[in-house]
Amino acid sequence: MSTNRPIKILHVVGAMNRAGTETMLMNIFRYMKHEGITFDFISYSQEEAHYDREIMEMGGRIIRLTKTNSVKAIYETIKHYGPYDAVHAHTLFHCGVALLAALLAGVKIRIAHAHTTSDDTSTLARKVYTTIMRPLINALSTQALACSEQAGRYLFGAKKVQKSDYTYFPNVIEYEKFLSKPEASVNRFKMEAGCGKNLIIGHIGRFIAAKNHEFLLDVMKYAVKKEPAIQLLLVGDGDLRAQIEAKARSEGLTDNIYFAGIREDVAAMLHSMDVFVFPSLYEGLGLVLLEAQACGVPALVSEAIQPEADLRVGLVSRKKLSDGPKAWADEIIELSSQKETNTSKIKAGFETNGYSLPKAINALIRLYNPETGGAYERHIDHLF
After folding, report:
1. Which intervals hold domain Glycosyltransferase subfamily 4-like N-terminal (predicted)?
2. How far is CA 374 from CA 41, 72, 368, in A?
3. Rounded to two decimals, what is the model's pTM?
4. Domains and CATH numbers, the chain
């Protein structure tokens, strides 16, 4: 393969922990590295994140910064570790800081990527910050990407999503890895959790306010009255975990809830569930909902989940949070017998809706390096 030099990209993130955006980036990096395409990551966490070690093993760098709004710090990073073909920022309105540093450092390709539909804008300072940053991002980005139309509108504004330098970029997963049920892993987990043949509903997500774990516990209070053996599986970790565990104890739900923590065997977790529950207050897309559908698990989601995450294979049901926890509990029990076992139907849903990892990788390569990207693109295809 003849290119002048390997493509080298700097991603700006909060921390590379196991979450939707970060998992998608790792899915892409694992294939791109086979062709010598390198990702470095600016991280604002001083602690080792879930994917840090794997990134370094694949030849990428984790560059830890402390001053979140320092243009100078990012500029110096680019000059020291570059040159970079592109800077790709994923940090909401902070993208403006990263893109300004990239412009000053001479980076020609500057990408802002929208991943969420809301933010804490309750304070005056935050409102002023977002008011300044939105036009700055639009002026400095050479390409705007969004995982859903609503996420794009939130970060860039309604006018931007109509322009040629805006692209809907679906969050992609290696869905083939989820299609087959890993029987041995599922059985091991059920023994570990002590849930056996119980009706299992589940949720995967960080313990943060947006994921609405408290509402899930309220749902469980009604669900156990109808199905005493029902089990709630909570996968993930986060700042609010201790608070949710305390509420579970105070509500007398300890025997009906299993806190699994951060897990590598996500497919086994999902295949263990009879229903996936996603009551978020806001979401950019909801990558884990794609994983749940890949496993054939019916899902009950809030109105905050973006329509792009529904593969239209009959597995996603919507309910308003205002309907209340009892209505959610009733719906969950009704959905518990509706798993989809037709993997061909699920696979067609992914492809029809644009969730193709090869296509996503090739699209990014063309954005990262328009001049030589085509040479890489032809080689990426053979990896799938």
Report:
1. 20-175
2. 24, 33, 11
3. 0.81
4. 8-172+356-383 (3.40.50.2000), 176-347 (3.40.50.2000)
